[in-house]
Design a protein that fits this description.
The protein is of the alpha/beta class and 373 residues long. It is 42% helix and 19% strand. The chain contains 12 helices and 15 strands.
């Protein structure tokens, strides 16, 4: 990322990692942090799974993971991959043949624990299939499924056990001369996850996939993920992220992008800056923001919009945004364009007008970007 010399306190120095490819998406190195999610449909229901993949991609997902628990799912995966607009990661547990079948079906990446898919011969077969079909691998360590010998050694899941597990799996791949892998060390506990990720970040230069596993529902899971992933990203750790929510995968993508946007690590769509509202508000801020979030979902261009209920902070926030609206009196407020007061607009017409202004600004920014290229 470019450094901010004027405001150095905004700089995030990302950990140096080597780069791999997940399909056509670069992961690690200086590549943008990729946003991932996972389908929750039956993989054998190709139509439903493809629809969910497409919805996630439309929301901004760079990569989507699909569970492959049986042979029927492996067969369905081939069609899903063919219709997917983004690279597909095949989620494999225990059954090494599913890994081979998924690589043959066109999966861009296999999510496996090399230690739980059988003996060395079976691991070699999966690695060979991945190499033959240009498929990368994600080593997925999870606090809830650590190896028995590590639980006996450490008595309970702990950062040291998770790091040791990850390094053991890395050695399996490296011993087979396979280096196109990334790694995750997830736990549902924020403290355990953060410590494990810091440990693995120091122990390897492999790209790191971040996640707080089984984080919970939309609200609680979002908060846990924002705390855990946000702090790690702030430290420069992480090359891909997945926000694990008991919710629609599209919500996972939205939350992931909001986390990255808040840290200046990815920019997509309209970043709405709005006040919580109070008795000073000149219009219904909450309903207005809800309406604008829905009306502006189609905007992919990175830009900012401030919606502030009164003049206490409104003009100041508008100085820093592409488009702004600040509540005033007598049923109208002030529209700001490029940080400057432009014209007044009645409250009853403001939503349509703001949408028009945002769409106009997005078109201008897109045109400027195309001209620069």
């Amino acid at each position: 990322m470019s450094l901010n010399h004027v405001r150095p306190w905004r700089n995030i120095y990302r950990r140096k990692s080597r780069q791999i490819m997940v399909g056509n998406v670069p992961v690690g190195g200086d590549a943008p942090i990729a946003v991932q999610t996972m389908t929750n449909t039956l993989t054998t229901d190709v139509a439903a799974t493809v629809a969910q993949v497409q919805a996630a991609a439309e929301a901004g997902a760079d990569i989507v993971r699909v569970s492959v628990p049986d042979e029927a799912s492996s067969k369905a995966l081939k069609e899903i991959v063919r219709e997917s607009p983004v690279p597909i990661v095949a989620d494999i547990h225990f059954h090494y043949k599913r890994g081979i079948e998924s690589a043959e079906a066109g999966a861009a990446c296999l999510r496996i624990n090399p230690g739980n898919i059988g003996d060395e011969a079976r691991v070699k077969e999966v690695i060979k299939a991945a190499r033959d079909h240009n498929c990368s691998i994600r080593i997925g360590v999870n606090a809830g499924s650590l190896e028995k010998h590590l639980l006996e050694k450490y008595a309970e899941p702990c950062p040291e056990a998770m790091v040791e597990s990850g390094l053991e799996h890395i050695r399996i791949l490296q011993d087979n001369d396979f280096h196109e892998f990334k790694i995750s060390v997830k736990a549902s506990d924020v403290f355990l996850s953060a410590a494990a990720y810091q440990g693995i970040a120091e122990a390897t230069d492999a790209p790191i996939h971040l996640g707080i596993t089984e984080a919970g529902g939309l609200v609680s899971g979002t908060i846990k993920s924002a705390i855990g992933l946000g702090n790690l990203l702030w430290m420069g750790i992480g090359d891909t992220i997945r926000v694990s929510l008991s919710a629609d995968p599209v919500e996972e993508v939205k939350v992931g992008y909001e986390i990255l946007k808040s840290l200046g690590l990815r920019h997509r769509g309209v970043n709405i800056i709005s006040c919580p509202s109070c008795a000073r508000q000149g219009f219904d801020v909450i309903k207005t923001v809800e309406a604008l979030e829905q009306r502006l979902e189609h905007i992919k261009t990175p830009m900012s919009l401030s919606i502030i209920g009164c003049v206490v902070n409104g003009p100041g926030e508008a100085l820093m945004t592409d488009v702004g609206f600040t509540g005033g009196g007598a049923g109208s407020g002030m529209v700001y364009l490029a940080g400057k007061a432009s014209h007044k607009m009645s409250n009853d017409q403001m939503i349509d007008h703001i949408v028009e202004q945002v769409e106009k600004k997005a078109a201008e920014l897109d045109a400027a970007q195309e001209a620069a290229e």
